Amino acid sequence: VQLQASGGGLVQPGGSLRLSCAASGSIFGLNTMGWYRQAPGKQRELVADIPSGGSTNYADSVKGRFTISRDDAKNTVYLQMNSLKPEDTAVYYCNVRRTYYPAYNYWGQGTLVTVSS
Question: Which residues, 6+ apart, have CB-to-CB distance to 32 below 8 Å?
Fold first, then answer.
């Protein structure tokens, strides 16, 4: 399984971007899809995730500004980012994981989001 992330770029503060991450190949069963980010000099952190048929989960720093969604028919996860701030600048990685048998943990290659005027 390969995850292909897209949609990153340069945006001004207050702007919006929509990230997409499509999985090629077959993903087995129920799982959690999510987005993480890593800013320069910082550890990778969870931005948001969404389990199959479950409720979404957001980092406090993005609540009310970002929305995660998934389309299981397309094996795709999205991250709509509004009211972007310079501190949102980071490489964003998508992830699909399943923690019980058969377990798996797939990562995308990352897409750079830069928020700057």
Answer: 49, 50, 51, 52, 54, 96, 97, 98
